[in-house]
Amino acid sequence: MVIGAPPSRRTLGAALLAAALASTATACSGAAGPDGGAPAPAAGRQAQDQGASGALNAYLDRVRKERAARVLAARKWGLARPPLEAPAPPAVKPKITTRKGFETHGKGLPPVFTTVPTKQKIVFLTIDDGAEKDPDLLRMMNELRIPYSAFLSDYVVKDDYGYFARMQKSQKSGVSLHNHTLNHRYLPGLSYEQQKREICGMQDVIEKRFGKRPPLFRPPYGNYNEDTLRAAKSCGVKAVPLWASEAFPDHMEWREWDRDLHPGDIVLTHFRGKEDWKGTMPDMIRRVMNVITSKGYAVAKLEDYV
Ligand SMILES: [Zn+2]
Prior knowledge:
Layout: H1 14-29, H2 43-50, H3 52-76, E1 112-113, E2 122-129, H4 135-144, E3 149-152, H5 154-157, H6 161-168, E4 176-179, H7 192-210, H8 226-234, E5 240-241, E6 245-247, E7 252-254, E8 266-270, H9 281-294, E9 298-300
Parallel strand pairs: 1-5, 2-3, 2-8, 2-9, 3-4, 6-8
Antiparallel strand pairs: 6-7
Zinc ion binds near residues 153, 180, 184 and 220.
């Protein structure tokens, strides 16, 4: 495939890339088979032979194959349309501040927010607690390449840490596991020391079981006070993301009066099964993805922005 002029220097001409990707999209939107044409020559060899335009071709080839795979996955999992491709995240993460009306008096505490400041048409998917451990969820999200973040509470996770270890490695860019306390208590009803045990104890569990101390913490039910934020800060929490809307297998619930998505909104849902709500995890994902995609949003990775 030959595309216009070769890109100058290291930066690809934005217009050129957009045009090339548009032709890729057309190629994938029809009756896309898994073949995508003959295999391309090895990227390294091609780059040597043709310079930057060869590298561009190899890149476009990979994008085209990923898109074709996503179209097939969307069909397999019953989505109305394939998920939209998230734009590249900003080179510098946005500055997150506490949402108006959610402040405490403490200075220098981790920010509490429901939406990430961005103009990009993206939202973030977060899944809480950990009771339902459906292997189909890992398969579905990996095949559709939908990023998400899990906020785990030890009392429902500890009977099968292995499931979440698999989740962590189930996508190329990794699924991040964050803190949702040891026992899912109503934190404002606890003393500072008790809250510290709940929050910092879970930091220790996640570090021990999954190898990383999480930077993000979400209080159960979204309820917290200044002690919560002080305790969280004391054991390494950087930010406290709440949510702007909540997804269920059969409906959405909205925090804002306009009952809509907004750029940077955090969407909450839960690890639940048919005993708890009207569907499976894939049913819930299908529903929320149909809402997100039909409104023109892509799902981005929260850790790229916070
Ligand atoms: Zn919860």
